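User: Fold this one for me? It's VOC family protein.
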Amino acid sequence: MVKYLHSMIRVSDPDATVDFFKLIGLEEVRRFDVEAGRFTLIFLAAPGQEGVAEVELTYNWPAEDGSDPEDYGGGRNFGHLAYRVEDIYETCLRLADAGHTIHRPPRDGHMAFVKSPDGISVELLQDGKLEPKEPWANMENTGSW
Ligand SMILES: C[C@@H](O)C(=O)SC[C@H](NC(=O)CC[C@H](N)C(=O)O)C(=O)NCC(=O)O
Ligand code: NI
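Assistant: Here's what I get for VOC family protein.
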């Protein structure tokens, strides 16, 4: 059954944002530094909502020369809504058959991105991981954010 996971927002000051959400009663659940992509992900949740309804903060590090990050979602603060699905291939096929573009196909059998009719990014995460299969396995991204 489909399950809401999180909403992602891009932040310029991760610690100030964590402190802000702590004032509302949320707590930091986990944090990942992704060296290759030069960004940090911080997941927050209300007590008892861990893994159920989270906020994902994305902090794009400044470029090595201190300038703005190169890759920051096109400057959009709002990133995506994320859902866990039973079968990511079936879900993507249903969306594609209805005429929607899977701009980040589920090549790895785990994660895909699609945009709503107004261009809101939606992340689909497979519960577990499926074996790569065609036509998704070798499909190129047709866009990012
Ligand atoms: C862990 C999972 O829930 C994610 O959302 S990772 C998705 C990934 N995020 C990034 O690459 C963050 C850095 C990037 N520069 C950005 O600002 O998004 C991703 O594919 N993001 C694209 C998106 O549409 O959210
Ligand atoms: Ni996400």
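One thing worth pointing out: Residues 6, 8, 56, 80, 82, 123 surround nickel (II) ion (ligand 2) (CB under 6 Å).
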